[in-house]
Each structure stands twice: as C-alpha cells, then as structure tokens.
C-alpha cells in the first residue's frame, strides 16, 4: 500500500489530506483501506473500523498521525490499556462509566467549539488583558474538555483497581 502518511499527512498543513488524496487520484477504496490499516490496531473489533472508516473515523487518522508526530503514541497505548483492563475486569461497570460520561464529554466539546467560534482578535489588548484572557481560555478548555475525559479515565482506573467510585453528577 502507498505510504500516505508522508505524502498527504503533514504537520501544520491546512490542506484536507483526504481532499488532497482525491485530487491526486487516490481511489475511495484505497483511502478506505488506508483508514482501516491505520486504525485497526487500536480496535478490538475491527469490523467497527471497516463499517465506520470513512463516515466517522477518517478524521481519527489525522489525530493519530499528529499524536505520532509529537511522539506521544505511548500515552494513547497507556490509556487504551486502562480502558481494556477495566472492560476485562468488570465489563458492565466499564461500559456504564462510558455511557455516564458521554453527555459531559459532548457538552465539553460543544463548549469548546463555542469558545473557538466566538474568539475575537487579541492584537489590540495590552499584555495584562491578553494574559488574563488567555488564562480564562485555558481554564475554560481544561474545565470543559479535559476534565470530563480525565474523570472518565479515573473511574476506569478505579475499576481496574477494584475500587468504588462515585456516580457522575
């Protein structure tokens, strides 16, 4: 299979790599095969990747590539091990945690998108106003996006350790 990673997935590129692939004559079948080959190692049930590869999971190839470029793939593997161990130890509790966390994670991502879309230029701000605004944004991103994911991960880790956990608010 062609090495699409180097050819179309470039760090910082504003070009949609899948559009670039299509413009370069890569067939939809080859793109789908590429998505499946890149993501399959991260799924226990690879039929999910095959069914959802282009419609839903194709953006995850770009995310995975960016993780690899940063040298953080070991962190992804570590988190996957936590989820898989939790599921192996207590499948019902593990899946319930995922279900309980879904709404807060979606709400957080929605809040982040609202912040992103309502962002205003900062060039006119003084250094103190700029700093205050940046810390406010950083706090909002942590509260809205990271906190729900980390709370979910903590609860999965507690299942792995056979510890009790509080139900989500």
Describe this structure in words.
The chain is mainly α. Helix content is 72%, strand content 0%. The chain has eight helices and no strands. It has helices spanning 4-8, 17-23, 28-39, 46-52, 58-70, 73-89, 91-117, 127-160. The N and C termini lie far apart (48 Å).
List the defining traits of the structure above.
0% strand; 8 helices; mainly alpha; single chain; 169 residues; flat
What is the structure about, briefly put?
The chain is mostly helical.
Could you outline the blueprint of secondary structure elements for this entry?
Blueprint (H helix, E strand, L loop, with lengths): L3 H5 L8 H7 L4 H12 L6 H7 L5 H13 L2 H17 L1 H27 L9 H34 L9
Helix pairs in contact: 3-5, 6-7, 6-8, 7-8
**Oligomer status:** single chain
Structural class: mainly alpha
Listing every helix as H and every strand as E from the N terminus to the C terminus, the arrangement reads HHHHHHHH
Number of helical segments with 4 or more residues: 8
- Note the main sheet: none
Question: Which whole number gives the mean pLDDT?
Answer: 84
Helix content: over 70%
Q: Separation of termini?
A: 48 Å
Query: What is the global morphology?
Result: flat
What is the beta-strand fraction?
under 5%
Low-pLDDT runs: none
- Give the C-alpha Rg: 19 Å
Q: How many runs of DSSP E, i.e. beta strands? A: 0
